[in-house]
Amino acid sequence: MSACRSPRRTGRRKYAFRLPTSSLSCRLRQSIFAVEAPAPPANQPHSEHFMKWIYTDGAPFICSTAGTRKQWRGTQGSSTGAAVTDYERACNESDYLARIACGSSQVLALGDEPAQAAFVAAPSGLVIARWIACESLAEAHAMLDELPGDLPHLQAAVQFTVNASELWMLDASATGSDLNGICAVTPIEPGTYNVTTERFETVGSFEFLIHRWLRASSFNEDGGFSTRLGGRSGTAR
């Protein structure tokens, strides 16, 4: 499997520090298995708002309900009958977020840099945090515990409907019916959400992409979504 790379971050600054990992976790990463981020030092409180950080060997993540997840074919084929695999369609998305078809439903593809990610229970509701750079796990949790509500947005919110009580995040190269470890799951209230893309950073210190899941209230008359994505209609592809 070749890792898909986005041109969006070409020329942007790169920090030398990433999520700290042990030699064991590095071996697991090379074997394409998810590992939890290491626990913070004993004298550092661990936030109860965090689940596990997961990462891939270069594939993007997708989010879906369990039923839709099981239709996802990853590198093994197409759930829609397309000439390219589901994984290739996810890799072809250059936006930070994009809805793409999966069987008779949709998944939400997390495009751009394939950074490690985690579900976070923030005061405003569910958040996906994508770790671009930070000095340590303890600092990451401290910063995300104080997540501001007025961050700069990088693209228009994407509307996404969840018809189950759990939301899954998984490696787009995986077959959704036979996961081997690179996944996370969180409770969610069924409904339609506006999913934002925001940048949370202090230059030279840390940087995260933030996706807030905010409840939406309306559809178009034809049942489609009204939100526009990156200057294009936000329809599934």
Structural account:
- This protein has helices at 23-30, 66-69, 86-91, 137-145; strands at 61-64, 97-102, 105-110, 116-122, 125-133, 153-162, 166-171, 183-187, 191-202, 206-215, 228-229, 232-233.
- It is mainly β and 237 residues long.
- The protein has a 5-stranded antiparallel sheet with strand order 2-3-1-7-8. The protein has a 5-stranded antiparallel sheet with strand order 4-5-10-9-6, covered by helices on one side.
- Strand 9 (191-202) and strand 10 (206-215) form a beta hairpin.
- The longest helix is centred in the middle third of the chain and has 9 residues, at 137-145.
- The chain is globular, with a radius of gyration of 17 Å.
- 39% of the residues are buried.
- Pfam families: Imm21.
- InterPro entries: Imm21.
Total beta-strand segments:
12
Strand order across the biggest sheet? 2-3-1-7-8
Identify low-pLDDT runs. 5-48, 218-237
Which percent range fits the helix content?
A: 10-25%
Number of helices: 4
Class per helix and strand makeup: mainly beta
Note the beta-strand portion.
25-35%
SSE string:
HEHHEEEEHEEEEEEE
How far the N terminus sits from the C terminus, by CA atoms, comes to: 22 Å
- Major sheet, described briefly? 5 strands, antiparallel
Residue-averaged pLDDT, rounded? 77
Pfam family, one: Imm21
InterPro entries: Imm21
Task: Report a brief summary of the structure.
The chain has four helices and twelve strands. It has helices at 23-30, 66-69, 86-91, 137-145, and strands at residues 61-64, 97-102, 105-110, 116-122, 125-133, 153-162, 166-171, 183-187, 191-202, 206-215, 228-229, 232-233.
